[in-house]
Write a structure and sequence with these properties.
Blueprint (H helix, E strand, L loop, with lengths): L7 E10 L4 E6 L12 E4 L2 E8 L3 E6 L1 H6 L10 E6 L18 E11 L2 E7 L2 H4 L7 E4 L2 E8 L3 E6 L1 H6 L10 E6 L1 H11 L10 H6 L4
Antiparallel strand pairs: 1-2, 1-6, 2-5, 3-4, 3-6, 4-5, 7-8, 7-12, 8-11, 9-10, 9-12, 10-11
Pfam families: Lum_binding
GO molecular function: riboflavin synthase activity
Catalytic activity: 2 6,7-dimethyl-8-(1-D-ribityl)lumazine + H(+) = 5-amino-6-(D-ribitylamino)uracil + riboflavin
Length: about 210
């Protein structure tokens, strides 16, 4: 589990490609503090497992499902990456609940200066926009952000100078792909509402109305 508060920007040092899989070697410093084999590190918002490490880099495997659903397949040596270690139970929860399980990608369609902020317009599939609401949470390349507005084919977020400086957003341009993870709470609520579980309960709407509960 992560919070979407980026700890450092890493650099892709090496990449081994298969038909639909990758092995990434990532240069980093802060996220390697007390790291252990098997630890989880979010790379551009994707929860990946550390398979080896030394004092200044670590490696992770990218399986076919992740290859197909994220922007990791488009990386090249030298790419900058947002990194975050899994959250500690006793730490501050500064962002929102982030699983590191990316729902899909979006494309940067516009960047507009607005006071001291930059408003990003992100085009994405209707199936992802369905889960977004103004002032709700969204994770973009691992960054916990607040949705500004939602339209029929895109949504917007407003980025403060600190977030611009501490993440890879400042290096992205029009047309670049970003990883998106929608708020999992909304997805769970939808699942529970749509579930059709058989029940033997005799309590129905009619029963509640007859007994004055509704």
């Amino acid at each position: 589990m992560f919070t979407g508060i980026i700890e450092e920007i890493g650099v892709l040092k090496g990449i081994k490609r298969g038909a639909n899989w990758l092995v990434l070697t990532i240069g980093a410093n802060r996220v390697l503090d007390q790291v252990q084999l098997g630890d989880s590190i979010a790379v551009n918002g994707v929860c990946l497992t550390v398979t080896s490490f030394n004092g200044n880099q670590f490696t992770v495997d990218v399986m076919p499902e992740t290859f197909d659903k994220t922007n990791l397949c488009a990386l090249s040596v030298g790419s900058k990456l947002n990194l975050e270690r899994a959250m500690q139970a006793g730490g501050r929860f500064g962002g929102h609940i982030v699983s590191g399980h990316v729902d899909g990608t979006g494309k940067i369609a516009g960047k507009t200066n607005y006071g001291n902020a930059v408003v990003y317009q992100i085009q994405t599939a209707e199936s992802l926009l369905y889960y977004l609401i103004p002032k709700g949470s969204i994770t973009i390349d691992g960054i916990s952000l607040t949705v500004l507005d939602v339209e029929t084919d895109h949504f917007t977020v407003s980025i403060i100078p600190h977030t611009q400086e501490m993440t890879t957003l400042k290096d992205l341009g029009i047309g670049d792909l970003v990883n998106l993870e929608c708020d999992m709470i909304g997805k769970y609520i939808e699942k529970f509402i749509q579930a059709k579980k058989p029940t033997t309960s005799k309590i129905s709407r009619d029963f509640l109305e007859q007994h004055g509960f509704i």
